[in-house]
Amino acid sequence: MSGQWFRRFDTARAGVPRLYCFPHAGGAVSSYLPMARELSPNVDVLAVQYPGRQDRRLESAIDDVHRLADAVAEEIAPHLDQPYAFFGHSMGAVVAYETARRLGRRSLPAPGRLFLSGRGAPTPEANPLDRMDSDEAVVAAIRRLGGTGGEILDDPEIMAMVMPTLRADYRAIGSYTWTEGPRLTLPFTVLVGDNDPVVTTDEAAGWRRFTEAATDVRIFPGGHFYLDSRTVEVARLVHGALTGSGPLART
Predict the structure, then answer these.
(1) Of 204, 202, 195, 145, nearest in space to 170 by CA
(2) How many other CB atoms sit within 10 Å of the CB of residue 42?
(3) Residues 85-134: pLDDT tens digits?
(4) Which residues lie closer than 8 Å to 83 by C-beta, 6 or more apart?
(5) CATH number of 6-243
């Protein structure tokens, strides 16, 4: 497993489902540490570390979702030797979905399930809410979503370090458009906060049009980053879906 692209928070475990987690715009693998702790030791969690952040901060971030998915698919392809699933939040949901599409085109083993969190279904046109024309707009969007502490956003030195990556990530998601192709054939679990300022529950439920399999829609109390306060509930949902230990309600 490439130490450059994937991070494991615990000892590698055989005989359990593997879950690849894709961070949000501006996010990094550390955003999945709480959920990984909840799922251990029953699920082998690996988080995807995009270039341009944390220990990859000296690399240039990739400012195109399709190129990012190309890169992840290339890295993950040799390691699909056991059952696995994808979990992506916000921009990460789109990257996870596009990565699964690329693996399918190569006739590689598909994920057993996609967990798509905090993101509406793709459209052929870019989402205008994702388009930011200045650094000030990016910072305002982050404040609105509530995903980063105000003390970080108000620290000029820290922001100077992270702005190149934020710009690249917002260019990536702001220019993303869906290109027509076959529907996937694997089940989706869609998760969304009931007070998300940028994703309605109807928009999230629209993901069901992109798979031929069943889609479960789960609504949690909270905003765009509901996951921060609902980690235990989400981890239980993920564990049940991957191990068959709990039923999933159909919608």
Answers:
(1) 145
(2) 16
(3) 999 999 999 999 999 999 999 999 999 999 999 999 999 999 888 888 89
(4) 17, 18, 112, 242
(5) 3.40.50.1820
What φ, ψ does residue 198 adopt, rounded to 5°?
A: -125, -5
- The reply to whether omega before 164 is within 30° of 0 (cis) is no
Radius of gyration from C-alpha coordinates of the chain: 17
pLDDT value, residue 43: 95
Question: Residue 179 CA to chain centroid, in angstroms?
Answer: 19
CA distance 205 to 40: 29
**Signed CA dihedral, 168, 191, 102, 98: sign only:** negative
DSSP state of 211: B
Catalytic residue among 30, 31, 40, 90, which? 90
Inform me whether the pLDDT recorded for 194 exceeds 80. yes
Cα pseudo-dihedral 170, 54, 88, 155, rounded to 10: -50
Give the pLDDT band (50/70/90) at residue 196: very high
SS3 21: strand
Give the mean pLDDT of the chain: 92
Q: Is 90 a catalytic residue?
A: yes
pLDDT above 90 as % of the chain:
77
d(CA 250, CA 215): 7
Distance CA 69, CA 58 (A): 20
- Tokens read off for 121: 């279904």
* pTM for this model (two decimals): 0.94
CA angle, 112 as apex, 93 and 80 as ends, to 5°?
95
